[in-house]
Amino acid sequence: MRGPDHIMGCTGRFTEYFITSKLTPLIMIVTIVMGVLAIWATPKEDTPSITLTVADVLLTYPGRGASEIDERLGRPVGSWIREIPSVKHVVSSAAEHSALFTVEFREGVPREKALTELYDRLYANMDLLPPGVGTPPSQTSGHYRSPFSQRKPLV
User: Fold this and answer.
1) Which residues pair with 102 in a beta bridge?
2) 50-146 maps to which CATH number?
3) Torsions phi, psi of 143, nearest 5?
4) What sign does the CA torsion over 35, 36, 42, 47 have?
5) pLDDT digits (tens, 9 = 90+) for 83-141
6) Nearest to residue 125, comparing CAs of 77, 58, 57?
7) Do 146 and 48 form a contact (C-beta atoms < 8 A)?
8) What span, in angstroms and rounded, lies between the C-alpha atoms of 41 and 52?
9) Residue of 106, 95, 101, 5 whose CA lies nearest to 53
10) DSSP code string of the chain
11) Is 69 exposed, middle or buried (0-12, 13-18, 19+ CB in 10 A)?
C-alpha cells in the first residue's frame, strides 16, 4: 500500500491497521450481535397511551363581533395563558359574543396543578380586560388519552 516516498498521517495508519487486521471481522460480528440483542431486549408498546390535561375556557363579550373579540380578548388572553410554563399549546377561537380557548398542558402535569395555574393567571389579569367581559366558567374538560398528540397551535 505504501510507496517508498509515501508518508501517512495518523488517520491513514489507523485505517491501514484495521484493513489488514484479523480482528476487524470479529469486531463487526460482535457489533451486529449486540445490536440484534438490543433490539430484541427493548420493550415495545404498539399503541402507547399518553394522558394529557386539556382545559377549555370560554369568555363571553356580549354584543361584539368576532374580529373585535379576537383583537380585544383572543390575543391578550392567549398570551397570558402561553406565559404559564406548563402550557404546551393554546388554540383560540373567536365567534360572535364569545372566545373559546383550548389549553393543552405538557405531559405529566397533574390536573389540579394545571387548572390552578390557569385560573390563577386568568383571574390575576381579569382587571385588564374590557368592561362587560364575563368571568370564565369553572368547568373545564379534564384528561384525554391519545396515542399521538395531533393538535396544532393556531398562531
Assistant:
1) 56, 91
2) 3.30.70.1430
3) -90, 150
4) positive
5) 999 999 899 888 888 888 888 988 888 888 888 898 889 888 888 888 888 877 645 55
6) 77
7) no
8) 29
9) 106
10) ---TT----HHHHHHHHHHH-SHHHHHHHHHHHHHHHHHHHS---SS--EEEEEEEEEEE-TT--HHHHIIIIIHHHHHHHHTSTTEEEEEEEEETTEEEEEEEEPTT--HHHHHHHHHHHHHHSGGGSPTTPPPPPS----EEEESS-------
11) buried
> Is residue 2 exposed (0-12), middle (13-18) or buried (19+ Cβ within 10 Å)?
exposed
Sequence letter at residue 135? T
Residue 68: strand pairing partners = none
Grid cell at residue 138: 369553572
Q: How far apart are CA 114 and CA 58, in angstroms?
A: 17
Distance CA 128, CA 88 (A): 24
C-alpha cell at 143: 384528561
pLDDT score of 33? 97
- Is 76 within 8 Å of 94 (Cβ atoms)? no
Would you say residue 152 has pLDDT above 70?
no
Residue range 9-30, pLDDT digits in tens: 899 888 889 899 999 999 999 9
